[in-house]
Amino acid sequence: MFIDIDSAQYKKYNQNAYGDYFLSKRSAERVIAVLSDGLGSGIKANILSCMTSVMLLKFIERGADIHNACEIVMNSLPICKVRKISYATFSAIDCTEDGRADIVEEGNPQFLWIRDGAVLDPACRVLASVAFPDRKMHIYGIQLALGDRLIFCSDGVTQAGLGSPAVKFGLGRRGLIDCVLRRLEEEPDISSHVLSRYIAEFAKNTEADHKALDDISAVAVYCREPRETLVFTGPPYHEDKDALYAASFMNFKGKKTVCGGTTANILSRELKIPVETRISLSSGSVPPASCMAGVDLVTEGILTLTRAGEYLENRETTADDAAGQLVRFLLAGDCIHFMVGAKLNQIHYDPNLPVEIEIRKNVVKKIAKLLEEKYIKRVTIKYI
Fold this sequence. Notes:
With 384 residues, this protein is α+β, with helices and mostly antiparallel strands. It has ten helices and 18 strands.
């Protein structure tokens, strides 16, 4: 089972910082995530929610029981002297890939657990704070199955539209449920990346002027079979193994892309499959993608990979050039495997090329790190 998790956020209108903070960490067989909502909005709320998320994630990551970690944080967070409420609320999840999930919520809206189009009602244990009796943790231990989804959010989602004629009392839990179930009915296999953005956008558009009047955060979790993706870039070191690598690439069970003209020509020669160049009128500084039967995407090499790395770093996922297509291809996968040819390509050292272009191995390493740390993907690199 693969735990597909992603988030989407909007800042409160006219603020320069997000008052909510989301962190997640994937290890070999485990996903830890924390969503915290800081008191108020802007810089102060950002600092409070960031502090809460980082503390909880580090506690759990380093072996602390999630219940104990959350209890420590709950008892440690001070109360605002003016509003008499906690400086931050949080939702924390510790989920293994066999489906066991421990969830603790303090102050955030209750999460949704969806299976086969229905919202489940899990058993809950409530633990009050020793230091602040009005502060309570809701503790859940659930067993997830393939196809299950979890939705977490800040109160910027459930309170969206509060006071407006359409939803006088805000979107609420019922409105959130209706929104999510309707979207799942339209696209049952929708990714967490797309679903979280849909929820956040829906909440923002629920406001009377379509402006976020509070920080909005949505986190989606999807339990499914992993989507395997293969990226082949660069000519192999040993030319006598070109046929072996070409066959290995084409026999891969999953989506596959080729990044590099030389690499595409090697596959074309060994597999007797022509490469067809596309003509693109779109503005952009990278060459257009090409077509090859049996391959989902064919792009130029270093220029496109470098630009894709920049897009990933800046969370730019809508660019219409070949690098943008490559970014969307990568983000659609869960387990991304790179086959990187170790043969040097002298064109990469042409002094006429921009100085920011790095050699292929470093570019791939940078992309792999971004995919792992920012997008919670599993990544492997094999040099050939």
